[in-house]
């Protein structure tokens, strides 16, 4: 089917210099990581560590920022612009993470504007979408992710540089992973949505990755689902078990 497996390691707001060095050492020392043509690995440290990690991380792994400002830089204290990331040679950015949607009140529209701007500057974007527990329990999961997707599709015409990360909020950092069937159901539905609202080619080629309590213990079964094209890993990306998660890509033929 030709969708290259994709694993992102989202370090979130974790790590100080010594810890960052240790994680990079573990990543650099990992043997038998499938080659780039089979597995795309993107590590996302906090902004302040991007230059250090860029200069010390193995060449077959790539880098993502965890956020970017919604438009050109300027008088926006505390923000980081897409131009700065491009200047530093950072190819990817994570946008729309639920922690930012919920804690920093980023709306669907705002996230969509950020995605469009980042793409316009040449960044590739990991777009996060996902429902809360309350929304799932009231049967709204698919409606919520479709709305999140619709906002983005209203502002984006080229999907070639987008990876979609389905991250149910109730599974993030809770140890309560979605079952493989739950993940597959939403991923298949997202692909159906893309097919009818964008086009069949985008539906077939966009990678849809799962995030939320992925560990070395559950990654193989999740990776075995036909519409799960990889993972966005939080907590476990700070640990040596991340290497086992990378190897879950081997279940894809
Ligand atoms: O939010 C996540 C990745 O972006 C998932 O976090 P956890 O893997 O810690 O649940």
Protein model, in words:
With 253 residues, the chain is α/β, with parallel strands linked by helices. It has a single domain (5-251), classed as Aldolase class I (TIM Barrel, Alpha-Beta Barrel), CATH 3.20.20.70. It contains eleven helices and eight strands. Strands 1-2-3-4-5-6-7-8 form an eight-stranded parallel barrel, surrounded by four helices. Helix 3 (82-88) links the parallel strand 3 and strand 4 (92-95). Helix 5 (108-120) crosses helix 7 (141-153) and helix 7 runs parallel beside helix 8 (180-197). The mean pLDDT is 97. Residues 10, 97, 167, 172-173, 211-214, 232-236 line the site of 1,3-dihydroxyacetonephosphate.
How would the blueprint of this fold be written?
Blueprint: E1 5-10, H1 17-29, E2 39-44, H2 50-56, E3 61-65, H3 82-88, E4 92-95, H4 98-103, H5 108-120, E5 124-129, H6 133-137, H7 141-153, E6 162-166, H8 180-197, H9 200-205, E7 207-211, H10 219-223, E8 230-233, H11 242-247
Parallel strand pairs: 1-2, 1-8, 2-3, 3-4, 4-5, 5-6, 6-7, 7-8
Helix pairs in contact: 5-7, 7-8
The structure holds 1,3-dihydroxyacetonephosphate.
1,3-dihydroxyacetonephosphate (13P) binds at residues 10, 97, 167, 172-173, 211-214, 232-236.
Family: Belongs to the triosephosphate isomerase family.
InterPro entries: Aldolase_TIM, TIM_sf, TrioseP_Isoase_bac/euk, Triosephosphate_isomerase, Triosephosphate_isomerase_AS
Protein name: Triosephosphate isomerase
């Amino acid at each position: 089917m030709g969708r290259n497996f994709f694993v992102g390691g989202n370090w979130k707001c974790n790590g100080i210099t010594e810890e960052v060095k240790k994680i990079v050492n573990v990543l650099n020392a990992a043997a038998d990581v499938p080659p780039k043509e089979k597995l795309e690995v993107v590590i996302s440290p906090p902004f302040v560590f991007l230059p250090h990690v860029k200069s010390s991380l193995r060449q077959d792994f790539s880098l993502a920022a965890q956020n970017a400002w919604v438009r050109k830089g300027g008088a926006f204290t505390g923000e980081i612009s897409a131009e700065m990331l491009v200047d530093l040679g950072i190819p990817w950015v994570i946008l729309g993470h639920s922690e930012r949607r919920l804690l920093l009140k980023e709306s669907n529209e705002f996230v969509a504007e950020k995605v469009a701007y980042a793409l316009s500057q040449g960044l590739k974007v990991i777009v996060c979408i996902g429902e809360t527990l309350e929304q799932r329990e009231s049967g709204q999961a698919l409606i919520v992710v479709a709305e999140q997707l619709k906002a983005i599709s209203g502002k984006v015409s080229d999907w070639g540089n987008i990876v979609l990360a389905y991250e149910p909020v109730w599974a993030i950092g809770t140890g309560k992973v979605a079952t493989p069937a739950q993940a597959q159901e939403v991923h298949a539905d997202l692909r159906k949505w893309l097919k009818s609202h964008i086009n069949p080619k985008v539906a077939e080629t966009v990678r849809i990755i799962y995030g939320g309590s992925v560990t070395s213990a559950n990654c193989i079964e999740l990776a075995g689902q036909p519409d799960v094209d990889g993972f966005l890993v939080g907590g476990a990306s700070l640990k040596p078990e991340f290497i086992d998660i990378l190897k879950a890509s081997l279940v894809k033929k």
